[in-house]
Amino acid sequence: MKRTTALGLGALLTGLLAAVAPPATAATGSPASTVQCEAEPLTMAYYRTWRDVTVPESANSNLPDPNVTRMSDLPPEVDVAMVFDAGDTADADYWDVLRDEYVPALHAQGTRVVYTLWIDRLAKADIPLTEDAYRAYAQELVDTFVTPYGLDGIDIDVESYPTGDDLTRAIGVFNALGEIIGPRSGSDKLFLYDSNQSGDTPLFEAVAGNMSFVLLQAYGRGTAGMQSTWSTFADDIAPCRFLPGFSFPEEQDRTHWGDAEGIYDPATAPSYTAYKYATWQPEGAVKGGFFAYAVDRDGKVWGDDSITPTSFTWMKNLSAVQDIAAGVAPAAPTARLADDRVTVSGIGAPGAEVEISVTGPGRHPSTATATTGIDGSWSIRLDRKLTVPQTAAVTQHFADGPASDPAFVRFRPMDR
């Protein structure tokens, strides 16, 4: 199919008055607003469309390996996924599959999906500098990139510094979009500001009130200066709307960020920037989460240009690590009683301590513990067989952090 574009939007707006409007003003709203913030920190990820299995491998490189990842492979730990389209994908099957399969599957597991646009699409749009033009163009962007695919909002990638009329136009469209999506709109649609810049630019200071979340492209920087960078945003947004992000190593990439490489290992992960971003918090506050770019490269090392499947070990584990740093208890582990009625095993968060507490008639309360492996697997042998109506409650926790809700295991003769 041919993806719908907004290339003809200028013609749509030719009937509007071409008079130049006064410079657009900042969106109103409290900098401390927590509208659309979540109770727990979020995990977000940029998904590169040109690496989806529905797109030919020649779409954005000369690498010979076929694509192997589907967007619906993203794990439920990813709360928000960005459709990041920078390849030659216009005629690919991806867009139909996105609408008909990927978005419904991701929504079913609790993952929201937004579309990434570049700032130039706003700043250099072929529209007059009028409020009516801004509103018409903003609606066209939503009608083109959100509504047809059932998406949950828009992300604007800001890596340049608009000036003059471009700045005025960008602010005007941002404010107009803020009436349709984001916290000012009263809808549940997300509006993200994604940038490698600080928070004291004229553009950001004018549009901050529109944004659901602000994503800082902090690739390779580390956390040494994160507090001072955060302070440039602090007057305009609440901490729960700020997410620093890292990059996985892309194919044929000359920049070695060193943020996260190889399969996640609890022993070495703390030395990587990605882990530091997941655990870092603004002074006296809790951040909104973290994000990763090129999530389909989770597990790769820099210099490995092959295209292979990923098990998303970094994303799954950093999501748990981030919850711990924010004082959020991990999810309950899975637990299964073996046929011997003594061995209990399952999957938890890598590096967590799993504890089993057995209670019930005919048994003194007893506990047993184990530490999960790199893959999250664990196994515990009870001191004797579990019988009816005894119950084994299984929880997990990290260090002195809060314990998860329990998973319960019981012996059920009818299931044998």
UniProtKB/TrEMBL annotation:
| Reactions it catalyzes | an N(4)-(oligosaccharide-(1->3)-[oligosaccharide-(1->6)]-beta-D-Man-(1->4)-beta-D-GlcNAc-(1->4)-alpha-D-GlcNAc)-L-asparaginyl-[protein] + H2O = an oligosaccharide-(1->3)-[oligosaccharide-(1->6)]-beta-D-Man-(1->4)-D-GlcNAc + N(4)-(N-acetyl-beta-D-glucosaminyl)-L-asparaginyl-[protein]
Cited Gene3D superfamilies: Glycosidases, Immunoglobulins
Q: Where is the signal peptide?
A: 1-26
Name the enzyme group at the top EC level: hydrolase
Which segments cross the bilayer? none
Q: Which UniProt keywords apply?
A: Glycosidase, Hydrolase, Signal
A Pfam entry, by short name: Big_6
Pinpoint the Bacterial Ig domain residues. 329-407
Query: What Enzyme Commission number(s) apply to this enzyme?
Result: 3.2.1.96
Residues covered by the Endo-beta-N-acetylglucosaminidase EndoS/F2-like TIM-barrel domain? 45-292
Q: Which family does it belong to?
A: Belongs to the glycosyl hydrolase 18 family.
Q: What is this protein called?
A: mannosyl-glycoprotein endo-beta-N-acetylglucosaminidase
